Task: structure prediction
Amino acid sequence: MPHDHDPHSEQEDPLWSLLAQAPLARPEPWFATRTLALCRTMRLEIEAELVSIRRIWRWAFGGGIGICLAVTILVVQVHSEVAETKQQRKVQEAFEVVASLGSDADSSASATPTSDSSSL
Amino acid sequence: MKDDVPNDDPARGAAGESDAHDKRLMVQIATGDETALRELIEKHQGAVYGTIAKMLGDPVEAQDLAQQVFVRVYRAAGSYRATAQFKTWMFTIVRNLVFNEHRRRSRVSLVPLHSSEGEPGGSPGLDLPDHAARTPDEAALQREMIQAIDGAILLLPEQQRLAIVLRRYDEFSYEEIAQILKTSVPATKSLLFRARETLRVALQDYLEIKERQSK
Result:
């Protein structure tokens, strides 16, 4: 295999020593300080973002609970009103039934003498 | 340097110790220790910046990208799991950023700064060796040679370029380069072979000069 390198032959390769003539460039002296400052800024930005997310979440959570409470109260109120109306309707129907029974009795009572007289 | 040196080589032991120290620093960074972060940056800034500068030929862009590498290391400190060597993992970030930059450049078709003529020192802004002790002719030849070497490396395809830089300048093993390039060891050896052959042709004149000088 032509490209099966031997590391020792690499060291003896004139190309290898020629490449060493152009070493890696060095960063500027303030590189570490600047990078550290960049990391710090980034961390502060993330923290600020987290704080704002937490704040939004707190408001959203509070608001959500408030809305849920309001809806629950409204539902309970509407439900009780409906139940009350139904109850009233039932009572009214019962009265109507009783009233209709009473009027039937009255009418039958007034009709009896007439039939008696006709039969006479 | 797994395949280069025997198992009982003290250099390997030192590398292992250095890796363990890097991993300890990462744990400290995860807890918000800025001193550990500074130590890590100071330890690896030369290799990271130098590799990126060799890959891009643009010191300003290299500075930005090298900073991005450490920012990513810092951000990943919390989730970092020491499964591979720290340096290999960090150079995977270097690889991703450099290849992304190449793609971005190819989209906007930027003219690389290294091609500008008449720049003192060939590669603008790169920190070159001190030539004060040389004669003007020697210094000029040295500058020209450095320019030619950097130019020849920059003309290599990106995978070959990174492979040769990691092997020659950062002294990574074939296995480590394979991990960084996300390829196999034979493919890495093949990349290096092709890169060396291309460089040998491109730098033929300088190789001959060196040969004459050594005789």
About this structure: Chain B touches chain A through 55 residues (CB under 8 Å).
